What we know:
The chain has 6 helices and 17 strands.
Amino acid sequence: MSKKYIFNAQLTGKEERLDCFLAKENIFNSRAQVQNLIKKGQVYVNGETTAKTSFLIKNDDEITVILSDELSLIIEPEDIPLDIVYEDDEMLVVNKPKNMLTHPTSKEIHSTLVNALLFRYGYEGLSDINGIMRPGIVHRLDRNTSGLIMAAKTNKAHEFLVNQIKSKTAKRKYLCVVHGNFDNIEGTVDAPVGRNPKKPEQMTVIDSGKPSVTHYKVLEQFKGYSFIELTIDTGRTHQIRVHMNYINHPVVNDSLYNKIPFKVKTQEQVLQSYRLSFESTNNNGIIELKINCDEDMEKVLRYLRSQK
C-alpha cells in the first residue's frame, strides 16, 4: 500500500525550491528525505514528475507525494550511546552491540543503529544513498552479531567504501565458535545463498541464490568445538551462519540455524565482526581496526578452555 499527500503551494514569494517547500511539512523527517523522494520520481508538480530537487515551484502549484509504507515510517533520533572505534570528517566505524538492528524495518523502527546515528549526526550529516531507512549505512550486521560496522557521512565516502567492499580491498574478518572439529586448518565455502522457499525467515544454500564466498581459518580446537576466524568476500544476509551450517559446523547458540544445545547461554549466535581494514576516505592511507572478543565470545571460550 502507498499513501498520497497533496499540497497546494501558498508562497510568500514568486518562486521556491521544491525540496525547501516540502521540507517544511511535518510528515517528512528532513530535507534529505525529501530530496531522496524527488530523485526516485515520487514527487509530482501539477501531475508531472520531476527528478530535480532544485525545481522551482510557483504559487498555487499542486505538489503530490507518493509514499510507500516503508517511506512513510518516521525514524526518530534516539539518544543511544555509540562505541565509536574510528571517526573522521567523512565516515565512522562503530562497535555495534548484540541485540541491535543495523537499521529500522517496516516492523521495528526503534533502538537501531540508525536511530543512534540520527541523534548524533542528523539526516544532513549522513549519506542518503540507501534511502531514509538506512542513512549512513554502508553494510550491515545481523541483530545479534556484534562488532565493527562502517557508516558514511557523505555520499562520496559511501560510494568509495562500497566500491572497496565490491573490489575486496576492504577486509572484514569475524570470530566465531562452531560445532565440530576441522580436518583442514583453512578452507573456503563457495556456495550461493538465497531465501529458503520452505522457511522464509531463513536463508539457505540454493542454486537460485547469489554468489557467496566465505574463507575460514581454525584458531583453536576443543573437544567437539572450534574457534575460527572468517573472512567474507561477499556480504549476503546470514552468510556466515548459513555457510557454517552448510558444511556441518553450525554456529554455537544460533537458534535460527542450529538446534544443538550448548551448556553456556549467550545472547544468540557466538559471532563477532572483530577486524576491519579499508582505505581511508581522506587520503590517510590504510585504516586497520581490531577489537577484543565480546562478552559472549569470552564466556564461551573460557568454558571450552576449562574443559581441555
